Amino acid sequence: MATVKFEEKSPYQQEKRTEDHTDFKYKNYLEHSGLRAIHAINILSYPKFRLAYIVDADPERLRKIKEEFGLTNTVLLSPEEQDKVFNDSKVDGIIIATPTFTHESIVTKGLKAGKAVFCEKPISQNEGGTQRCYEVAKQVEKPLFCAFNRRYEPSFREVFNQVREGKVGRVHLIKTVSRDSPLPPIEYIKIAVSFRKSGALNDYDTVAITLLFPSGTIGMIDLSRNAIYGYDQRLEVFGPGGMVSASNEAPMQVTYSGLSSQSHPPIYHSFPSRYQEGYREELRNFHGIMEGEE
């Protein structure tokens, strides 16, 4: 987190930044129960799905979810009871939003039980595990959907479509910026897949990557874990025919103009609000795949 190389105070020892009052989508996310709630809300709002089970290790969180969403027809289970889900012939698909180190085993179990599987990225902690999961999916002829919500975000999707239409010509350069906000909890860092391989908790976490593709196209990725001004998400594609880009977005388009200054709401605080529509669209796409429409 830019503490060793730049000789700065650890961001975990600095004042924590909170979301701006204008980010109503993020406030709604906080009122529920994290990523699990994002998927639960989307399932409940999509008429072609029925939420049959929720499996969670935290009994209090299960109670809260049941109360918040009025889940009278949804069975709540602990991880020790998960076999009930896999053995239920009425279950067509499962959604996995658990810690990364659990993904491979749950994915494999779900596929072998004959279920379509939607799994938050990554599928596994390593390439070999990911390949094994897709081999199982091929063997049992069931879809394994890796959830990349950015692919379904409307503005990023429009960039993709315009490039495919040839608007920029042959692609020379692709640039992305992905700077996280807010700083992840220290508990998350402890269980993150990269923690076991990192040198130290106080090592800096700002990275720039340059890629050269066989076509000659150059890729540039700019990453950080600690953008204090908001969730910085940008995409740019450049070629001889021009450039197409997606910029940061704000929850409200309200501007104050005064005698000597002008102000507007900051960009989205974090991923639940910035990519809300992306989460919805990926779930719809998963349903289409299950139905053989995609």
From TrEMBL:
Annotated keywords: Oxidoreductase
GO molecular function, one term: nucleotide binding
InterPro entries: Gfo/Idh/MocA-like_OxRdtase_N (IPR000683), GFO_IDH_MocA-like_dom (IPR055170), NAD(P)-bd_dom_sf (IPR036291)
A GO CC term attached to the entry: cytoplasm
One Pfam family from the record: GFO_IDH_MocA
Residue stretches making up the Gfo/Idh/MocA-like oxidoreductase N-terminal domain: 47-146
Protein name as catalogued: Inositol 2-dehydrogenase
